[in-house]
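Journal club prep — side note

Before the paper discussion, L.F. wants everyone to see what a predicted structure for a comparable chain looks like in token form. Sequence:
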Amino acid sequence: KLEAEPLRDVRVRRALHMAVNLNEVIKVNPMGYGHGAANPLVPAALTEWAIPIGQLTPEGRQLYEADPAGAQRLLAQAGQSGLKFPVESTGTWGTAFSDVVQAILSEWKRAGIETELKLKEGNAFIASSLARNFEKMIITLRGGATNPDPYLMNLLPGRPQNTAGVNDPKLNEMILLQRRTFDEKKRREIIFDIQRHFAQHAYQLFVSPAARVISAWEPYVRNFAPNIGN
């Protein structure tokens, strides 16, 4: 929740991202076998629309470079040394997701950040998340849309899936502009700018990489697609 203390302070949000070593998180994902890609605002799987991490601003790139010491310095600057806060999630989505949650919390603990994990039944968790009925933070999934628009539109004020409470006039304008831009190259440039701006403010923390999944099947098999759902 962006309005909740101490998460109102961008230094705290940046520290929480920088404290996580993405390589340690991807190790527990049974689909990726230790291989994955860092997620910007648009998931890495949407390769045409997800900005390469190297094309973010220097501050944006820094989020993805594990730096527990740097995270601790940012927390100290924000007056939040010894930070402790509640985190809500669910154990209903299987052990793979639960292991990722635990890996993230372990990375925070390694940087001196303590959390109190509160688990809810899956449907109750979804309902409370969409109602923004949680204290400070949730760890959740964000669906599997195969085009960038839902990930962007859900950041507009009043959208049910804007659980963080993002309300940035400049961001709102860019999101609506990309919808009205039919030239693919120009639209991609706008969406890349959106991702740079978003990372700069760390409105959400993408501290779990996208697992790289390999599927193979015989050439005579038809009408088949690998299951990439939960």
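L.F.'s comment for the group: The beta strands are 36-37, 84-90, 114-120, 137-138, 210-211. Keep this in mind when we get to the figures.
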